[in-house]
Design brief:
alpha/beta, Rossmann fold, 7-stranded mixed β-sheet, 5-stranded parallel β-sheet, 20 helices, about 20% strand
Length: about 675
Amino acid sequence: MTSVTKPQWVPSEDRVQNAIVTDFMTWLDQQDRAKVNDFAGLHQWSVSHIADFWSAAWDYFDLPGEKGRHIYTRNDQDIKASAWFSQSKINFAENLLRYRGDQEALVFWGEKGRQRSLSRDEVYNEVSRLAQALKAQGVEPGDRVAGLMPNMPEAIVAMLATTAIGGVWSSASPDFGAQGILDRFGQIAPKVLIAPDSYDYNLKNHDVLGKVTDVVKEIPALEKVVVISWSGENLDLSGLDNAVDMRDFVNPFEPAEIAFSRQGFDHPLYIMFSSGTTGAPKCIVHRAGGALMKQLVEHKFHGDLKENDRLFYFTTCGWMMWNWFAAGLGCGATLICYDGSPFAGSPTILFDLAEQEKITHFGTSPKYLDTLKKAGESPIDKYKLPALRAIFSTGSPLLPEGFDFVYEHVKKDVQLASIAGGTDILGCFMLGNPIGAVYRGEIQTPALGCAVSAFSDEGKPVSDAKSDDGSNERGELVCTEPFPSMPLCFWGDEDGSRYNKAYFERFDNIWTHGDFLEITENGGLIIHGRSDATLNPGGVRIGTAEIYRQVETLEEIREAIVVGQNWDGDVRVVLCVILQDGVKSLDKELIKKIKTRIRTGCTPRHVPAKVVAVSDIPRTRSGKITELAVRDIINGREVGNKEALANPEALDLYRNISTLQED
């Protein structure tokens, strides 16, 4: 992608002056901590004076807890063992529940619209009662509580209650199959499981108790199963051992001031799970202090999320964006939870929500925006969204055409913040800048406190030389300095070998994230797909996102997936496409059109050797297409863990495709 010189959006002077990050820079100057005049300068200071930045963030946020005098010690031999705030005492839930009163804290929408809301005081009281119940059940600091939960207020209450008493929270979405649940929760031996009896999706009700019954038999550590009635009706739990209705579980306890269990900065908070498409999911343990500080920096400084703002993110409890979303409570924001299909009843139900709830920050994905675009939807013509200040997008790279769609068909005066990071860091390596310009196709800035770079195969920052298509050189996304939300460990990885292999095998003592990165002349960033899915025809590295950008502009194509096939001692590019309704076949003329678009929009090296039509594309349960799984099937290898996929049956479409057995 060639460098863009004209921005699509520039913040008004009023927005710049009133941004939280502007106030932070003024505060730094007044406190004689640093003199920085713009976001780029702040980022440079944050990575060259790491201890000073994170110490200042703690003080500026005025975090409840004991900071201690020690801030940071770098371990030069093993940066993941670097020490952060080693004398501090803090509790995650205490920080998220610091705002009290009768203002709305949680609002719940289902597929049929608004269901209910809870005030800040009501959330606090519900957390208090459940925390007391969990403690009475025997949950102690370090014990695991697992949630197989829809994205509903009870999920956030359960997470806060668990972490308030020092427990470790881990969640998954109720659409997982029994084996997928066991692959996750079976590894971490939870003491309590919290789950609904059912949930709604695509205007249908789906049972959960059946698979919970199967799962409970295989996790001997479980002492109690707490069940939430989705409909509010009475529950029949006679067939489930050690089960109790949530209402009965908390009924003996009255709301009271919560005795928050303050622990060290490194106390385990969450156990997150990798997608698990290449084997059993990795159980990634995150520290309470690191998650809290990282997510507050992102919400406040990058997202400009203020008290009484209204935050929405379309997510499930099986995706790290749910954890990221929940941290918005620590800014005093109202969280709008939605559970169900984003197209249930109406293709634009999420914009019904955005308009009616006066959403200020709207979180979505490139896939959702592209689906609206291809359906001919134009929310700007139907909805009034005066409160909306920011749109977040993640899950895959947001292509330039996605930027165009937002500014032409959603809202013109809005900060479009494409963000990228992952479960591995419980946050982002790059995201928005509320006081900076938005350039088409570019993520605005690297994350504060993260020394992000693009490395060549030789382990050096890529050169300023241009590629054949006029873009800057690309390289591996790395972070060269420690940051507080690096995982504490992997559960069960006693010698740390799996952790080291996951992030430090490629470059010694340098975090390698697995994305293919370009840094633009604007100081922005572009992700060109996963580096482990990077194509290498003739030994030349090609990012898959570049091909998707061209293919998805064709009206005949609904969606595509591109992989590398081992062939004749080399790798050839294979493009699989789903045709739009009404397109009869993938004939020679359409294949020629596809190849021509890719050749003219990219380079001849990007042109696929084979183009085939398929009816479905396998996805993870968070909605990401699985290039590695398709690549394995096409190359005759089996996929290690099909339970990680939302639609594993789609893999069969890629077996023994006749045209892929030909030159």
